[in-house]
Amino acid sequence: MEKNIRKNHEQKNHKNIRAIIECYEEIPCDPCEIACKYGAIIIGKPITNIPVLDMEKCTGCGLCIANCPGLAIFVVCENYTDTLGTVSLPFEFLPLPKKGQRVKTLNRNGQYVCRGEVVKVIETKSFDRTPVVTIAIPRNKVDEVRGIEIPKR
Amino acid sequence: MNNRIVEHPILGKIDDKEMVTIKVDGKKIKAKKGEMIIAALIANGIRINRYTLKKKEPRGIFCGIGQCTDCVMVVNGRINVRTCITPVVDGMVIQTQQGLESGRDKIE
Amino acid sequence: MNRWELIVIGSGPSGLTAAIEAAKNKVKVLLIDENIKAGGQLFKQIHKFFGSSAHYSGIRGINIGENLIKKAEEVGVKVLLNRIAIGLFKGKKVVVKQGLDNKGKNIDIFEADKIVIASGASENAIYFPGWTLPGIMSAGAVQTMINVHRVLPGKKILMIGSGNVGLIVSYQLIQAGAEVKAVIEALPKIGGYEVHADKIKRLGVPIYTSHTIVEAKGNLEVEEAVIAKVDKNWQTIPNTERIFKVDTISIAAGLKPLIKLVRMADCKCIYIPELGGWVPIHNKNMETTYSGIYVAGDVTGVEEANTALEEGRLAGIAVAESLGYLDKKIACNIKTEIWERLKDLRSGPFGENRFKAKNKIIREY
After folding, report:
1. What CATH number was assigned to the domain covering residues C3-122+255-364?
2. What average pLDDT does the segment C118-132 reach?
3. Contact partners, residue C42, CB within 8 Å, separation at least 6
4. pLDDT at A14 over 50
């Protein structure tokens, strides 16, 4: 997994906003390919192929985030501001954070990374109950932050 | 004690179904109309359904889909009722089953 | 009416698609299920399914269930719930008992030209000191409680088993507001998909591989679980014990096909561990060694909802064809397409054992 994560992060596009598909096993699954309206995700046949992201076509729109049944896709942006980047992630829990809320961010092992601020929360019918939350964090943390602590109800 | 999941990120808010009253070992508890007996019990923190014949050990739900019979209780005088697939009705009388309850079965 | 062209036993994903495909082709179909609601295990599956976008992927199991039940009604399937098939006899007679445990029951006898047995599978238990304490239950029971009945069976859970069921139910427990203290797995490697494991790792749930449960302790209900590391001979290693204060232990140790009706009809079976145990032998039409009796779904081998949906379709098409309602050539094309999709679903490192096992069944026919 470590090798794959490094490979993903070396691919930067000029907008510094990109989807990161943390899906590295051959499992029969292809909704991400269909979800991307820019054709930036390629699986093809057989559907066990590991998804490949075409950096040039990726706009960082985040449609893929909600459509991945494995919740394995994130969108990171490194230049939200001079000092801050953002990570957009799927969040299927209650309470759903609100825009402006300060949250504790977590890494892939659920360990605390840093505080972040929620800058956007998208819930639409097409996301089918998988809201996408965008958090602003120090830009050097965008490759690390992959979750937020669920606020107490 | 209320173990009901009132709000759920995928399933939404719990529906406002009518409540009924059932008796469990003499104690009145509230249940949602038509829910499985086991759901009403667990919602009220009751997880023991019966005691075994020889060693009188407690047993509770195992499979949840009517296959294993670990959850059986005496319901309205009837023994061996699988509480995981039997819905409640208002006024139902439920008792922790003790062993085989031989001679207790009431045939309607 | 007591005579039917097709009786489908079990209204889970495979029973529903079998009934739908047959009825779409004008077959008179009766679908029975022992539960008071149709849909089998679909209504516990609140997550989005994997698989091909061409067929149901990205859709939550609960919605697939709703859609199928609606479709079955639309195409004229007669659905009888709270009906348990207690016997299959010569002449394809299906004896059905109707009624809840707390009431008297009625018996009906139906006769069928064709039968599809879609009886599914049931969960395995594992045995350890204290395994019978209330609060220790199958992962499926946990899932039914939280997603169907909307009650929490407990607040602090230990999950045994890191296959997809264990990983998914752990995630759903957290969605329901419970705390999963740990997932333990006897094998040295996580059994399910990495993406499922990653979801719960991000929530801080530790996954202990090469660990087994040593004992569950508690007075009248479970209060504590003791786990320990195992060596390559499955023996616990001294001084590796960990104790978790839990009120619930969820066992996700695999399922076994429910083949009672299959055996009653004397259909030949074969023992295949990769598919959960004894499974019925069938041909490419999903027909068993008893002419006119078909099987589909988990009863033919424990796989997933996706494969169950497809196998049900196969059986439904094959029945329609054999009753003369569907042209052979058209049926052949549809079946070929379905087998292609099944091949896709059984490809990759997770599917290949099942693919080989299924081929073995067909060779044995």
Report:
1. 3.50.50.60
2. 96
3. C12, C13, C61, C62, C64, C65, C68, C305
4. no
Would you call C57 and A71 a contact, using CB atoms and an 8 Å cutoff? no
Question: Which DSSP category does C89 fall into?
Answer: E
Q: Where are the beta strands (DSSP E) in C19-153?
A: 29-32, 78-80, 83-89, 93-98, 106-117, 121-123, 136-138
Q: If you count residue pairs, one on A and one on B, with CB atoms under 8 Å apart, how many are there? A: 9
| CA dist list (Å): C11 to C220, C309, C322 | 37, 11, 22
Delimit the domains of chain C by residue range.
Answer: 3-122+255-364, 125-251
| DSSP calls for A11-67 | ---TTSEEEEE---S--SB-HHHHH-TT--EE--SSTTSPPEE-TTT-----HHHHH
Residue ranges with strand state E in chain C: 3-9, 29-32, 78-80, 83-89, 93-98, 106-117, 121-123, 136-138, 156-160, 179-185, 207-209, 211-217, 224-229, 242-245, 248-251, 255-257, 269-272, 277-280, 293-295
Domain boundaries, chain B: 18-98
| Chain centroid, CA C175 distance in Å | 22
Q: Is the pLDDT of residue C165 over 90?
A: yes
For range A34-47, the mean pLDDT:
93
**CA neighbours closer than 13 Å in the CB half-sphere of residue B68:** 20
Return the CATH number of the domain spanning residue range B18-98. 3.10.20.440
* Confidence category of residue C150, pLDDT binned at 50, 70, 90: very high
Helical (H) or strand (E) element with B21: strand B19-24
Task: List phi, psi (to 5°) of C362.
Answer: -70, -35
pLDDT at C158 over 80: yes
pLDDT band at C103; cut points 50, 70, 90: confident
Across C123-136, average pLDDT: 96
CA neighbor of A108 nearest in space, from C206, C352, C323 = C206
DSSP state of C148: I
| For A153, nearest residue in chain C (alpha carbons) | C177
**What percentage of chain C reaches a pLDDT higher than 70?**
100
List, as ranges, residues 99-138 from A with C-beta within 8 Å of B.
Answer: 129
Kindly give, in sequence order, each residue whose CB lies less than 8 Å from that of residue C63, ignoring residues fewer than 6 positions away. Answer: none
Question: Number of folded domains in chain A?
Answer: 1
Rounded to two decimals, the ipTM of the complex is 0.94
Q: Which residue of C has its CA nearest to B7?
A: C176
C127 Cβ partners below 8 Å, 6+ apart? none
**Residue ranges making up the domain that contains A111:** 2-148
Give A110→chain B minimum CA distance, Å: 20
**CA–CA separation, C364 and C344 (whole Å):** 22
Picking from B99, B102, B25, B103, the residue whose alpha carbon sits closest to that of residue B55 is B99
Distance CA A72, CA C98 (A): 46
Give CA–CA dist A92/C337, Å, rounded: 35
Mean pLDDT of chain A: 90
Instruction: Give the mean pLDDT of C287-304.
Output: 97
Q: In which element (H, E) is residue B50 found?
A: strand B50-51
Is A153 a member of any domain?
no
The answer to whether the predicted template modeling score (pTM) of the entire model surpasses 0.80 is yes
| Cα separation, C237 vs B60, whole angstroms | 31
Q: Which residues of chain B have pLDDT under 70?
A: 103-108
CA pair distance A130, A120, nearest whole angstrom? 14
What is the CATH topology of the domain spanning C125-251?
A: FAD/NAD(P)-binding domain (3.50.50)
Binding-face residues of B in 8-27 toward A, CB within 8 A? 8-10
Which of helix, strand or coil describes residue C288? coil
